[in-house]
Amino acid sequence: MRNQMAQKCYNTNMKASIITIGDEILLGQILDTNSCYLARELARVGAETIEMRSVADTHAAILHAVEETFLSSDVVLVTGGLGPTKDDITKQTLADYFHTTLERNAQAEEWLQLLLAAQPERLKNPYNESQVFLPRCCVPLRNRKGTASGMWFEKDGKILVSLPGVPFETETIFPQEVLPRLKAKFTSLNVRYKMLTVYQVPESDIAQRLEKFEKSLPNGISLAYLPSPGFVRLRLTAKTNPDDLPILFEQLKKEISDFSFLENTSEKNEENIALRLRAAGKKIACAESCSGGNIAHLITSVAGSSAYFLGGVVAYANEVKTAVLGVRPEDLKQYGAVSQTVACQMAQGVRRLTGADYAVSTTGIAGPDGGTAEKPVGTIYIGVSGPNGTTAKKYWFAHTRERNIGRASVQALVDLLAEIEKK
Amino acid sequence: MRNQMAQKCYNTNMKASIITIGDEILLGQILDTNSCYLARELARVGAETIEMRSVADTHAAILHAVEETFLSSDVVLVTGGLGPTKDDITKQTLADYFHTTLERNAQAEEWLQLLLAAQPERLKNPYNESQVFLPRCCVPLRNRKGTASGMWFEKDGKILVSLPGVPFETETIFPQEVLPRLKAKFTSLNVRYKMLTVYQVPESDIAQRLEKFEKSLPNGISLAYLPSPGFVRLRLTAKTNPDDLPILFEQLKKEISDFSFLENTSEKNEENIALRLRAAGKKIACAESCSGGNIAHLITSVAGSSAYFLGGVVAYANEVKTAVLGVRPEDLKQYGAVSQTVACQMAQGVRRLTGADYAVSTTGIAGPDGGTAEKPVGTIYIGVSGPNGTTAKKYWFAHTRERNIGRASVQALVDLLAEIEKK
């Protein structure tokens, strides 16, 4: 009984607000990625983000934002304004808000010493001393990647967490120190879910197929569609009755058994490819024209990708297509670089060059110039070569250059994955 | 006189707030890039963004955010919540806020017809009809990239602008339709500035050199430092006395004449490279190991890059380094893949393979695994080959995989640019 008293638990839906502090954000010099990261992590466990704000690095702006968001939220997550050269405005403002003062925190001091001992060169800064002063009433949160500790405050049954603004520090402290504490406070956060990704079937077709299944779901279990170009992720979430989840997930899989899908998938197809290739022990390569290296970049963004990615050729000039990839000059002349024939020869060429089991290729017109009536901007061929042969498909993404490159790259990963999944 | 009355002008500093609307943002499913884009464009003309908010797609949340931000700002920019399937919540909320109703707007209807005639397939949507209903009191703003018109409202001498949430639509309407109207309203926005980028000199060294120059600047003219890894952009801004700007800029250049710098530069070095290579008529190529295609991706993100970028090789596996790039197997064995020797041979190899004038290469340990005591994670060699010979430098970026790849790529572009700039 005493234990339960000490460990207050809330069973309501947790409502959160996120505040990011920083003049660089308001000047448009840096893109705020912390808000998106925190909102996604909160959504994953069933918490609701009701608002995000970015405010200036001043006492008045921070105080105003904290006061307003604390009224409507159970939890306020604040990032930024904690660097060693930030003049302690954020910490002083939080101390004022919680009617306390800054004092030397022994725990924070110990962590700072450990960190400085490990990486003296990287972390040397004359202002580090100020980092160990924290508001009296806060619980310090260990930051294993930087000198500024996080801080956990409670007031009137509500919680405020202050984290450093550097994304990789926030992304370290949040799962290690914040989420477990939130889960202990809010029992509603113990949401369970299962995911799968359906490839190359339009969302409307999947929705039609699953209409009856969705209607039959018991209270507390819901199906969400997260559509992306070329694939749709399905998330089956149990807010209550977690025991029903595995059975209903099996039923869901049966309903769409003739569609091409993968279980336990990430939102990133480069990670799904990693999963499949590691399991299959196969190697891949890519030959890129219009995607300009972005497919290789996506694949190699996954840690450990050197285990299955051999390499690629960015064949921007036609001479590189012929000399390096072995595309036949007469085919280039007859069909043009943006053609099914050339896409196939590029995929075959890089597979031969690297000895990969599978290869993917792109050739197209990313824009904004270079389009013709017959091949408008956004026309892109994607070739796939593997043990089952070589094919190429034509796509038309009528967007800006950036989006055409992005769409072509994602589609190439989807097509490659579909080929690897082929029985 | 009448004209002046009709065209109210404000000479104060313009304060703006930015509101982005969308459940996808609050769920962390999409990253809000509009706020950053708008804040950067506003900063460029001397306006101050005092706050950014992201709120849910509901009447209450939108109304609350508009009411609050309108109190503290001269201009409120709203993006999102205007898609054809969004149930018109945003438009209805704005109509309520401005005490008016939605009605069919003849101008918006004409624009929609023109757009649908040009791209019937892409824009076909049964809900398009709703797009021509706008609040009575707004000035519609033409959207040349999508079906939702922007809207311009004025009230009590303040301005609210509503734009669609799709980034490339916002990025089209803002410069075409919004910025000129804002400049007509706020004479303070006619800020002039000149930029240059200094390469490979630490910010503190530049600041020391320019201390006297900065102190000597007349009122209304200021120097800003925008540091990035490997380079610092300097912006000389004239809020008043624009005629002094060219003279002072020449003086600034003289002060740092022994540093390596470029004028009129973009924040993106891939665009600066484009500028230089087009002027010089030279061609480039790249050979990437640890950067995994990201350098090629950055270079080809620039429209028209096929004029100077021949292509590249992503040599992830050692076999690709030897077979395709001609790296000597005995050197690989003796010095390891992550070495100055291999970086040089990779740059030379791709230059020979493609016939490029200049080539850049990377080889290193992006992490999180693969580091050793001698070559810890983040150790990266960048090679540059050109008419003046071939060299390679060692760097250590002790970060996450993503950041190590990003830093290595930016540094490679900086080193390539420095080589091209060499007299």
Number of helices of chain A: 17
Strand content range of chain A: 15-25%
- What overall geometry of chain A do the principal axes of the alpha carbons give? globular
Rg of Cα set of chain A? 26 Å
Number of strands of chain A: 17
Oligomeric nature of the chains: homodimer
What key attributes describe this structure?
Alpha-Beta Plaits; 25% strand; 423 residues; 5-stranded mixed beta sheet; disordered N terminus; 6-stranded mixed beta sheet; Molybdenum Cofactor Biosythetic Enzyme, Chain A; Maf protein; alpha/beta; homodimer; globular; 17 helices
Q: Short summary of the structure?
A:
Two copies of one chain form a homodimer. With 423 residues, chain A is of the alpha/beta class.
Question: How are the elements arranged and paired?
Answer:
The structure is a homodimer.
Chain A (H helix, E strand, L loop, with lengths): L1 H5 L8 E7 L1 H4 L7 H11 L3 E8 L3 H14 L2 E5 L9 H9 L4 E3 L1 H13 L1 H4 L9 E3 L3 E3 L8 E6 L2 E6 L3 H19 L6 E8 L3 H7 L1 H5 L5 E8 L2 E8 L6 H11 L4 E4 L5 H12 L3 E5 L5 H7 L8 E7 L2 H6 L5 H7 L4 H15 L3 E7 L14 E8 L2 E8 L4 H21 L2
Parallel strand pairs in A: 1-2, 1-3, 3-8, 13-14, 13-15
Antiparallel strand pairs in A: 4-5, 6-7, 7-8, 9-11, 9-12, 10-11, 15-16, 16-17
Helix pairs in contact in A: 4-5, 12-17
